[in-house]
Design brief:
Among the domains are: about 150 residues, no CATH class; about 100 residues; about 140 residues, Rossmann fold; about 70 residues, Orthogonal Bundle (Helicase, Ruva Protein, domain 3), CATH 1.10.8. The radius of gyration is 46 Å and the shape is elongated. It is an alpha+beta fold and about 700 residues long. The N terminus and C terminus are likely disordered. The protein has a six-stranded antiparallel β-sheet with strand order 12-7-8-9-10-15. The chain has a five-stranded mixed β-sheet with strand order 2-1-3-4-5. The longest helix has 19 residues. The termini are far apart.
């Protein structure tokens, strides 16, 4: 007997009536047959043809047998349930893969009479290709729209769920790295893409979506069909507003509520007030206006970083020209290509201003750009930044000092980083902080205003001085002390590593011009200090002189201290205050490691402290200018002006040289003469110098100048 024979009905009197009634029911035999098949799958049966010997060989002892559950005849209810499941399984179609059905399903959440939310399929569709499948099959649709209504029946929210792998793949390839900005705007990207509210990302990339073609030809038809559905949903959700915006945008006008349409995250935006391009990260309507978050490229003295900043366009009631906005998308600029070219060149120049650079401003003169020092001394909090990665730090810096080293050398301020990409050059800020040497202050300066410094060739030729002294100075310029920071002459510490030159002589004899020429010859910045700028107390002198010498050493600048007579006077027991000033001054000179010039006109009176001579490596004396020297100074002063604006002969210069005037006043008189020439509308001539000599009182001053 097989296992299924146990379920065959027994033909006795007690069961015949029951069996006949069961046989009379329609479909009963079919249900029983189905149930038998299910049992046969669960409990496999032995083959009846198997030999008894084979069966005997498989017998086990009683102790080896596991208890077999007692089999009972199934009830009528169980048979009916099994038959119902079999019927449902036969009627259910094979499931469709997730997101592969090229249709859109809209689900509405509404409240019933008892105030309970209920999710139903919408009876109103925006496309004709929508059917009503079973609720458990919604994920098979490429998109599902979920709308929520309040108790009054007003729509409160709308969510678009994209299940289609084709659409998600299209967005991933189209958006690229811009995906992160839409994720921040609550747009997810994984197996499911969720867009809340207005489908901004669909509007922003509708052109790219329309032109998108998948890499696989097998996906082309489904992708295009689903993209059409997605764009149809976007047009449906925006309604008539979409047509209205096209009309206004075509005329260059915009309303406040449409600002999000022209500002697409990931695009470049132009700022007219700063003449900069920035990378748009995200946007958001806030109470005070439309907030935009941007990224720009900033150099912090060590590396180039992307720094975020926010900008708000305040709300406005009427339409406004797009060109009048405080921020304009680059795509809507009147000349985007020309702007790109200009800002890329400026970004390249900004990149070259890393480290320490001496540049020239048309109005401010010589400027030292040293961002690292400015940030170190500035009290302003620096914004948070993201470093632009070029690989490891070893690869980031390509200067000789860092080649083969993983660490940046703290004492070297001229590290050369790898070239910025063209996009990063576009994003560079338009200003940089520089130290104006003529004013001795840090100022924010526009990058395009700074130009490379044109150093004068052989400036020593312009100095009117004794040839033997000039030769001595030329020999000094060849010394390594002017280039390497000095050689220590002391036994301890860093004392005596500087190079100090004392220039003494009457006013206007060329001491300052000499130092200017030396700095020009060495192509170094000139840091000029007046004695009165250093303060009146020893504490002020320590602070101001120490800071100035620190900057000069860092920039390898030539330092000039003029009118420092109060610090050079001999110390005495009676004047403790002046002694403290002189001590502070001398102490700073001891530890200075650069090149320092000091000028004075009191040396001949014996009014210079002896301690200064012990610290001065070279002392040069200047005498009053003779006729030949004054003639050369006159010629040099006139040479500053264009040749076509000057009408002077050699005889005129000979006549000017007869006036017993020092070099500083010669320069002043020349400027006055040029002003008179411009006022008269002619070239600079001798008559203008005659008038300038009278008005300047030079003849009176000359009486008190001894030769």
């Amino acid at each position: 007997m097989t296992l299924m024979d146990k379920f065959k009905p027994h033909h006795d009197s007690s069961s015949s009536s029951s069996d006949s009634e069961s046989d009379g029911k329609p479909g009963f035999r079919k249900r029983v047959s189905t149930f038998r098949h299910r049992l046969s799958d669960k409990f496999p049966m032995h083959d009846p043809s198997e030999s008894r010997a084979s069966i005997e060989s498989h017998r086990t002892t009683k102790s080896d047998l596991e208890p077999v559950p007692e089999l009972t005849r199934p009830t009528q209810a169980e048979l009916d349930m099994e038959a119902a499941k079999a019927s449902t399984a036969a009627a259910t179609p094979r499931p469709i893969c997730k997101g592969m059905l090229n249709e859109v399903k809209t689900l509405d959440t509404r409240f019933n009479k008892r105030g309970e939310p209920r999710v139903t399929e919408s009876t109103v569709s925006f496309t004709h290709a929508m059917v009503k499948p079973k609720p458990e099959n919604f994920s098979e649709y490429c998109m599902v729209i979920k709308r929520r209504f309040n108790e009054e029946g007003k729509q409160m929210s709308s969510i678009l769920e994209i299940y289609s792998p084709y659409l998600i793949k299209a967005f991933q390839e189209i958006l690229g790295r811009n995906r992160i900005h839409y994720i921040e705007n609550r747009i997810d990207m994984g197996d499911l893409m969720i867009i809340e509210g207005t489908p901004e990302v669909v509007y922003h990339y509708q052109k790219e979506l329309s032109e998108y073609r998948p890499r696989s030809a097998n996906e082309l038809e489904d992708t295009q069909s689903q993209v059409e559905l997605l764009l149809a949903y976007m047009r449906h959700s925006m309604g008539n507003e979409l047509l209205e915006t096209e009309t206004f945008f075509g005329r260059g006008l915009i309303k406040y509520q449409w600002l999000w349409m022209i500002f697409r995250p990931g695009d470049l935006v132009y700022h007219p007030s700063t003449d900069e391009l920035s990378y748009l990260c995200r946007t958001k309507y806030q109470q005070n206006g439309f907030c935009l978050v941007f990224e720009s490229v900033v150099y912090d003295g060590k590396s180039f970083n992307r720094v975020q900043f926010s900008h708000t366009i305040h709300s406005f009631d009427t339409t406004r020209p797009i060109s009048a906005l405080s921020a304009i998308p680059l795509s809507l600029h009147k000349d985007p290509e020309g702007l790109r070219e200009k800002l890329q060149l400026r970004g390249a120049w900004y990149f070259n201003l890393q480290g320490v650079k001496t540049v020239t401003h048309p109005k401010l003169g010589r400027v030292v750009v040293d961002t690292k020092t400015y940030n170190r001394r500035s009290t302003h909090k620096q914004p948070s930044a993201t470093h632009i990665s070029y690989g490891t730090r070893k690869c980031a810096c390509v200067c000789d000092a860092c080649e083969g080293s993983h660490q940046e050398k703290s004492g070297d301020s001229n590290h050369k980083l790898r070239e910025l990409s063209n996009e990063d050059k576009l994003l560079c800020v338009s200003t940089i902080h520089g130290f104006v040497l003529s004013r001795k202050v840090w100022e924010k300066i526009r990058v395009e205003k700074l130009k490379p410094t044109c150093w004068q060739e052989d400036p020593m030729e312009e100095i009117a001085m004794d040839e033997s002294v000039k030769k001595a100075i030329r020999n000094l310029l060849l010394s390594p002390l002017f280039f390497g920071g000095g050689v220590s002459t002391e036994m301890l510490g860093n004392k005596g590593k500087g190079f100090v030159v004392l220039l003494h002589g009457p006013t206007g004899t060329g001491k300052t011009v000499t130092v200017e020429s030396i700095a020009e010859h060495l192509k170094r910045p000139l840091y000029v200090l007046a004695g009165g700028e250093l303060g009146s107390t020893s504490e002020e002198v320590n602070k101001k002189l120490g800071d100035a010498l620190d900057l000069a050493f860092r920039w390898k600048a030539i330092t000039l201290i003029e009118e420092a007579d109060i610090f050079l006077q001999p110390r005495s027991r009676e004047d403790i205050f002046r002694n403290n000033l002189a001590s502070s001054f001398h102490r700073n000179l001891e530890y200075f490691q650069g090149v320092l010039f000091i000028t004075t006109n009191r040396l001949e009176r014996g009014t210079v402290d002896k301690a200064l001579f012990s610290r001065a490596h070279v002392v040069i004396k200047y005498n009053y200018l003779g006729p030949d020297g004054r003639r050369k100074v006159w010629q040099n002063s006139v040479r500053e002006f264009p040749a076509e604006e000057v009408d002077m002969s050699n005889e005129d210069y000979d006549n000017l040289a007869k006036h017993n005037i020092d070099g500083r006043r010669i320069s002043s008189i020349t400027r006055i003469a040029m002003m008179l020439a411009k006022a008269a509308g002619g070239a600079l001539a001798m008559r203008h110098f005659d008038a300038a000599l009278v008005t300047s009182g030079a003849e009176i001053c000359g009486k008190y100048i001894s030769t």
